[in-house]
Amino acid sequence: MRPLLLLLLTLLAATAQAQLPPCDVVLTSTPITCPTVDDGTLTVVSNSGGPYNYSWSHDANAMNATVANLPPGPYTVVIDDGGGCETIIDTLLTEPIIPPLGSLTSTGISCAGANDGTLTFTVDPGPYQWSWTHAPGVGATTLTNMGPGVYSVIITGGPPPCPSIVTLGLGDPGVRIDGEVDYCPSDPPVLTAAFDWGFQADLIVWSTGETIPVINVAEGTIGIVSVTATDTTIGCVVTAQVNLTELPAPFVAYVSPDTVCMNVGVVVNTIATDADSLVWRWGGFGFSNVPDPTVVFPQSGWQPISLQGFDLFDCGSAPLADSIYVRAQVPAIFTAMQLPCTPMVEIVLGSTADSCAFFIGDSLVTHACSGFIRWDFGRYNIYDFTLYATESHHCDDTLAVTIDVRTEPTLFLANAFTPNDDGINDFWPDRVEIPETGFELNLYDRWGASVWSTKNPLEQWDGAGLPMGVYVYTMQMRDPCSATDEIVKAGHVTLFR
């Protein structure tokens, strides 16, 4: 029990020591008088208590209440009396801002090495005294034949206790080259000729042969690239150069066929690479990141294909480019249309292929690629029509069509639909080309109130504003196969959300 009591007393004493009350002190400061003059002062003033110990952040040997000759910057002092109180104070000494008491203007140097710049100083209404820092004995406000450099004027006699300084620079007109000099093969740099100190060139010549300010460097360009810029009005010529380095990039290799058929997929294979990721491109818009993509060309003729490899830092190789000859695909073309109110279908074949085979169902009808066929099925049913068009280079095509040969066209009225904007079954009924004469479709809720109606066989209901539920419909239309007969249907449709 006694050891436990001693432990508790020790913890209480440590807690009390960690939460000492603040000392009754304040920190005062004397500001820095002038820029570049380190004469700031900080003083801890005791209102009561003491004596105190002082620990300053900027100097471990400073132990007094006052520290002097301080430059701008942050300061912290810790004050304690040896166990009864502790205070930590942070402060910041700033450099005074001296307003300018005059201004400097310049006329630039015309050409590098000309040393023909001009400086003009204008002093504010005074009385003030001033002098050039580079030539204290010169009293002229305008200096001519000046070369590159930074020039200043010191103005004294103003309200501040320190001088005001105005500064202006002159530089040789020149050209520099902006742009990346270490580049990946996948991203050759764009270099720009930029002008300094007011240089105005009307003639630009790059070592690569271009004569425009901005150039696209060709992949593989390394070493020195230079530009020469000329102001032909005054005959001033300046130059600049950069040293280009092409960074190492992954290696890729692949195989692809020499020829393919249009609209027929073919696999191309990556056979060697040390890349972390791949980028395939082909034709106008083909793209893939897989090693062995299936490529399809929708256009005939010579088509490009390329492969790039990229490392983990997205530095890629230059596109390894090739081309594939895409043979035109002669399409299989035909139309099939039912003669109204009969089980007969008129077929028009229109292909220009080398050879063809036309089937109805599983039966071969003709090898002709073009021509007219009238086929009497004898009864109403659903029939399949297929035309195979073949070429000597094997770029074949197939067209298959299914026709519902029925007694008369009628509107298909589904018993449910889901208007939820997913692009599937969002409208009711399905659109069907049927005669508009005598057509009318009405929809009612379960109390018999009309909720929607139309006389247009192509118009569709979207269920807007109505709750999920069962709705009753009636439909009537003129029988297109009998001018005196009318087709009438009734039923229900369920709206799901």
Distinctive features:
five-stranded mixed β-sheet, Immunoglobulin-like, 48% strand, 497 residues, mainly beta
* Percent of residues in helices: under 10%
What's the level 1 CATH class of the largest domain?
Answer: Mainly Beta
CATH architecture of the largest domain: Sandwich
Total number of helical segments?
1
Q: Give the termini distance in whole angstroms.
A: 74 Å
CATH topology (fold) name of the largest domain? Immunoglobulin-like
* Category from helices, strands and their pairing: mainly beta
Q: Which of globular, elongated, flat, extended, rod-shaped describes the shape?
A: elongated
Task: Provide mean pLDDT, rounded.
Answer: 90
What is the CA-based Rg, rounded?
Answer: 46 Å
**Count of extended strands:** 40
Largest sheet: 5 strands, mixed
Provide the number of structural domains.
6
The unreliable regions are: 1-17
- As laid out across the biggest beta sheet, the strand order is 21-28-27-24-25
> In percent terms, what proportion of residues is strand?
over 45%
Walkthrough of the structure:
- By secondary structure, the chain is mainly beta.
- It folds into six domains: 75 residues, Immunoglobulins (Immunoglobulin-like, Sandwich); 69 residues; 73 residues, Immunoglobulins (Immunoglobulin-like, Sandwich); 76 residues, Immunoglobulins (Immunoglobulin-like, Sandwich), CATH 2.60.40.10; 72 residues, Sandwich (Immunoglobulin-like), CATH 2.60.40; 80 residues, Sandwich (Immunoglobulin-like).
- The chain is built from one helix and 40 strands.
- The chain has a five-stranded mixed beta sheet, with no helix packed on it.
- The two termini are 74 Å apart.
- The N terminus is likely disordered.
